[in-house]
């Protein structure tokens, strides 16, 4: 009689073995980004968060460019051209350090570069994409306004024709990298509908002002953009962007990165809580030995693994061409909420220590408040899912 070997016990850090489903290239990218993030970013991110800025963003951009992280899912023009899962894994490993760092890469690649790559002219692509992929030029993406967030179609920024030129006036708000960008993709209303413009930030009339006093996403540079009679030639217009659907499609690419990224933030909080619970002794034994703490950890490991499974499955759908925008709404809706639960529980396990920057949990919890809002609020994605499953739109 032969005896089958017993299955190995689950790995607490990958309980369902989600990463066993990665191929060699995906695993290599995961490891490279994780190693870089742990070595070069993690030791500094608490200080950046406390300072409310990234001290040397251009040096960071060059490092990201050297690693091929900018526009890594795009093809040509110096972009890496990797699959969607590989891009997602990079987002996960960056956000395991901090949401602001994933946002830096996401805004550059999934928003600004994707807009130019998808809707730009050959000349625009050749001028900007190789430099942006290398981290030599920084881009931003300006859709949100002070009075127009979820209802992007209500934007007040206008572009009017003046002979062969366009003149832009208006303001944009909550723009990541806005004050350090070399180029801004600006969306504006025209007599012909919503149009996009590639705007060098040294254009007269363009100004950017850093938003201060943030309590979330502090290791990220966020700005207000002001456009006062910004005059552009028609060659600055994105020729293939002819409706609000263009910027929304770019946002969908960025949301996909969030689906993966927040799984990294949740993993970081869970691992910190697991380590802390094993080391923290109260009433004569580690708090990991108490039933209430184990219940919290059990809920956390479920949420983390659900988030990783959801991200990987949506990534495979995307790589096969079967990913609908509502799949990504599902991922953002589910994974952000699950990650918030994990971060909140991790903070409670850390007790008073959890409110300090000596541990990552409150920093992640605060960041996730912003991630839950940008690129589609929880409410918007809930309504997207509701429309998808009932066939009845409830937005208006």
TrEMBL record:
Q: Which UniProt keywords apply?
A: FAD, Flavoprotein, Oxidoreductase, Transit peptide
In this protein, which residues make up the domain named Acyl-CoA dehydrogenase/oxidase C-terminal? 248-387
* One Pfam family cited in the UniProt record for this chain: Acyl-CoA_dh_N
Instruction: Using the UniProt annotation, give all residue ranges assigned to the region (Disordered).
Output: 1-21
Catalytic activity as recorded in UniProt: glutaryl-CoA + oxidized [electron-transfer flavoprotein] + 2 H(+) = (2E)-butenoyl-CoA + reduced [electron-transfer flavoprotein] + CO2
Required co-factors: FAD
Spell out the family assignment given in the record's similarity comment: Belongs to the acyl-CoA dehydrogenase family.
Q: What is this protein called?
A: glutaryl-CoA dehydrogenase (ETF)
**Species of the source:** Salinactinospora qingdaonensis
